[in-house]
């Protein structure tokens, strides 16, 4: 994979929880035009854990069709057990994807051996590569350097890891036993520029879904070693995220996506609608950072 950004694209659903196909494909097209080097379908911001099981394969299929082979497509298949994750992957097994992306099981915290057991089993159940997703804030279970090393010894189709743990990435990069093609995708939005500067140059987050302009400019600036400009664009993305969080993340994100021309609801179905007073503020912020 080329260096650059991978958006965890949002998933637009209608009032009945069905995929808004054209909206989804338009979003992906805009991301590729902005310079995305891959697409993550149904990541955290893609609300995969909140969708009906029957909708997930439709979302993945729409992503593959929209991309049409231009960049890799990663597909989230997170769940709380081996059996459930295997069922999810089986429904999407025949798609042309780069890898399945799986967190550790969530709901209960896992031990080290339970994490190893889980990835060994789910990786063995698919012909596709698997990317681990280290999301301890949600799953309560940390994927550590030693867990990665153990899995690399025992799982042939373990392709990489997505994490915000720079210390772990440093160890993996310096370890001569870690294969050169082991994919390390950095998800610490607040210091994408620092990570990129030190060779951790594939970055993934949900915020680029609603900031394609700034995301594209950010990574173009870093490619040209213009880290002053890069910091400006990254600050815009971080400012928007913090703006959303201060006003309720999910309805703010969904409202912003609608303003950018993507119809549908991008939030879990139990989320309240945006407060009316925030709507003009969100528009003004999108204009300020150059996304509208």
H-E string: EHEHEHEHEHHEHEHEHHHH
- The helix tally amounts to 12
- The outline comes out as globular
Helical content stands at: 40-55%
Calculate the terminal CA-CA distance, rounded to whole Å. 30 Å
Number of strands: 8
Q: Uncertain runs with pLDDT below 50, 5 residues or more? A: none
Biggest sheet features: 6 strands, parallel
CA-atom Rg in angstroms: 18 Å
Please state how the strands of the largest beta sheet are arranged side by side: 2-3-4-5-6-7
Query: Overall pLDDT, averaged?
Result: 96
**Assembly state here?**
single chain
By secondary-structure content and strand pairing, the structural class works out as alpha/beta
**Beta-strand percent range:** 5-15%
What this model shows, in words?
By secondary structure, the protein is α/β, with parallel strands linked by helices. The chain has twelve helices and eight strands. The chain has helices at residues 21-34, 56-67, 82-92, 112-124, 136-139, 145-154, 166-174, 192-197, 212-223, 227-246, 249-259, 279-288; strands spanning 4-7, 39-41, 73-76, 99-103, 130-133, 158-163, 183-186, 202-205. The strands form two sheets. Strands 2-3-4-5-6-7 form a six-stranded parallel beta sheet. α3 runs parallel beside α4 (112-124), α9 packs antiparallel against α10 and α11 packs across α12.
What's the short story on this structure?
By secondary structure, this protein is of the alpha/beta class. Helix content is 45%, strand content 12%.
List keywords for this structure.
292 residues, alpha/beta, 12 helices, 8 strands, 45% helix
